[in-house]
Fold each of these.
Amino acid sequence: MALDPADGYPYTPPEIAMAAGNQKLQAHQFAVDIDIAMRRHYAGNLQVLAKTLYPILYAEATFNGGRYTFCEDEHTTYVFEEINHLYTELKAIAHIPLAIYSIIFPYAEYPLNRQWLEPLKAFGLQVEAVQLRLNQLDISGPALTSSTNILRESIDFIAKVVGRGDFTIADYITFCTSIGSDILVNQTAAAVEQVAAMKTKLQAWRSSVGQATWDKMYVVLQCIWTVSQESAHEQIIKSQMKPEFHETHIIVSEAAPTLDDARLLLARILADRVLAAAVFGTQTAQAYKQNIYSLSTKRDLLAKAVESELGGGAAAACPYLKPTKPTKPSKSAKPKTPKKSQESVGARQEGRE
């Protein structure tokens, strides 16, 4: 029903418009505003700082071997992307078991509805196409033998499970076991190709800029979590840097999908390190040293305090700002060595085996 001005208007409580809240809430907002201002100023500082950091090497993992971008200074940037047919071919053939896994395993609990069958048949035709043209590829030597075996066994496995319209996980494991050593041969050959290409380019850049400039270089490696531990590119780049820079000048992160993102991440890390030294560097207490470490690494600044709280350890407020003295043992107290029964020792040994 339409409103009639003669009847007045619906009542709206005026408190609804009092968004700032009462005195206590407004006082809280004044405190929050400090942190908002900090974040705004810090973000602006990082944007400016990111544009000044040189030299920087940005490494990306790609399907064909990798792409390196080396920014020597604001005027000079080099880009190298490995396009190696042999590396790509070896890797593709070694990945055949992974493709089969991806097609059939979603249906492993009950494969008899056969939704996997047509996709696997289609993939089998792709594998056969490579087998027919294997001698036209760049693969030779032991890698040719291993690739031949992988292709043959893959085609046989696909034909077997498609023919009977069923498969088991045991079938797949048996298939993979039969070509495990061949996959290792391809892995090794691919690694040789990748190292040769990327290492040679890094050496050329180092010679061009000189060792002194090279030692100042920071590296950001864009890497997904599943391959972020000792990735191929991390190992290759470390081999061309002095060991004393490995821990401080190489950053591995998923949060750097572009060069600009890598610059911003590096700016954040270096700014945090400078901040840590400025705020906590002159303090001798262990708590301050822990804060320097936290601001300078991946560890959260509150990590140690949270660890203490969850561990039930400690004092109120921030226990790490109140280091306690270790308790001295009594002179009369002697450490007791618990006796271990032969049975318990044997049980532990059995467990290790």
Note: The two ends are 82 Å apart (CA to CA).
Amino acid sequence: MILLNRVLVWLSAAAVLVTLEFLLRADTLYQLLIAAAVLNAIVAATIWQFTGRRLRKAAFWNFIITPFFVVNSGLAFLVFLEGESTRQLVTIIVTVAVWIFLKVTFLYFFFRPKYEAHTLENISSYLNLITVFLFCTSVFNLIILLRVPAWLGAIGSMVLVGLLSYQLFWIDNLAFRTQWRTVAVITLVTGELFLAVSFLPTSVYVNALLMTLGYYTMTGLARNWLLNIRERRVIARYLLISCSILVIMLLTAKWI
């Protein structure tokens, strides 16, 4: 069984790569929907296998959050992306991201001697940042190109960030009753931030980076606070990093 699960990590990543390559050559909505269905089926089947083949287990639904949003945000991002080399690069990044998450999940469940403490938490944190950027870029493109209302984008970003934040805190072994207020605040602030950023005369990539920076700052501070890591230097480090990146972004951004 362990050998099967080990091979499944590689097979799933390879299947994701092949499906994304198919997406790059898709020219109809029907083909796009097929690619999305296949990607989600691959991720769901692999997580289902790793979590004991039980859909009713909380572990399945909690572990599937990050890879589900990674592949779907990556798919949406590719739809709007131009340039063959750039699209290939994003395809590789999404595939590697899925492979890393599945590999760490495999070690977490089946090979604990090789699993390093807090690896799953850290990997989820990094992949969530990538997901927020890909998702927000796609939504801002929808707002500009298809005139989708900004409030719909705000709701979508709130759902995304709410689930990613919950999953991140859950992996840190924080009970729902401990984290729900914090997740609610982060979710509401995300919606307000999205609406504010949508009015900026900057590119979709700058806007998405601002949303990602907001997510990084809020979840980083909240995560440490909930884990009782409340030293001033930790808070100061997050604020310093966030403010420095914000200043650099705004000074170097191309204002439309």
Note: Residues 74 and 94 are 6 Å apart (CA to CA).
